[in-house]
Amino acid sequence: MYYLNGEYFELTLKQKITYFFISLAIISFGNGLSIAAQLGAAPWSASAVNLANVTHLPTMLFLAIEAILAAVINLFMVEKINWRRAIGNVIFGLLFSLFVAEFAILFHPLLAPLSLIPKLIVDLFGICCIGIGVSVIQRANFVLHPLDNLTNVARFKFFRGSAPLGQLSNFIFAVTISLICWALSGKLLSYGIGTIYCFFLQGNNIAWGDKHLFKHLLHIDPTKI
To answer: Own/partner pairs for 159-165, CB < 8 Å, 24+ apart?
Structure first.
């Protein structure tokens, strides 16, 4: 839904699809940058990297598994199950997993020669991109990555619409997974300044996107859909 010239309008299917691909590109791009920079990825991406390290299976596989599990949890948290949206969210998550893996492979050789400060700038920029992309896809209200949908549901169901608190509650589980992997392998990968920044301030990036990017788009309580 969007607000324009004092009136509320429903997004057309074409508009929803457009925002879907814009968001998918921004979020995947940002995750790929943060993983390739190796100075701290978003917590869920970092958890997938650490699971891959422990099991020696592809990171993309765990990104996909996380998306599917989050989609199942979402079904239990909403008041009314919308199967079209649930299936669409899983498809988004699987596409996201593929795109992030490809972006990370693409960016790694480009970022590897850089010194610490340029890498850090790229890493933080990537994480900001993730938050902005999440803001757009949440408000477009078409399909979401299941983890972002989980954040959105928690935001309205438990935290009175607070994006920072909703995001923080989501990330706690991702960090726990990585800590378990650390205990098993003795290595903690894809954690750093970027992860700390993402953990505490990604909700603020989402809130910034709400106010400054596609400002006419409005949030709808996902628990009522």
So the answer is: 161/219, 162/203, 163/203, 163/204, 163/206, 163/207, 163/210, 164/201, 164/203, 164/204, 164/207, 165/203
The count of residues in the chain is: 225
DSSP H/E element including 3 = strand 2-4
Taking residue 196's Cβ as centre, other Cβ atoms within 10 Å add up to 12
Higher pLDDT, 155 or 108: 108
Amino acid at 94: L
Q: For the segment 86-129, what is each residue's pLDDT rounded down to a tens digit?
A: 788 788 778 888 888 889 899 999 999 999 999 999 999 999 99
Place of tokens 């009175």: 160
168-184: buried (b, 16+ CB within 10 Å) or exposed (e) per residue? bbbbebbbebbeebbee
Cβ atoms 111, 190 nearer than 8 A = no
C-beta of residue 15 within 8 angstroms of C-beta of residue 21 = no
Query: Could you tell me which residues come within 8 angstroms of residue 58 by beta carbon, excluding any fewer than 6 positions away?
Result: 52, 101
Q: Decide if pLDDT at 223 tops 60.
A: no
CB–CB of 177/51 below 8 Å?
Answer: yes
Question: Structure pTM?
Answer: 0.76
Q: At what angle do helices 13-37 and 193-212 cross, to 10 degrees?
A: 160
pLDDT at 220 over 70: no
Tokens read off for 94: 């699987």
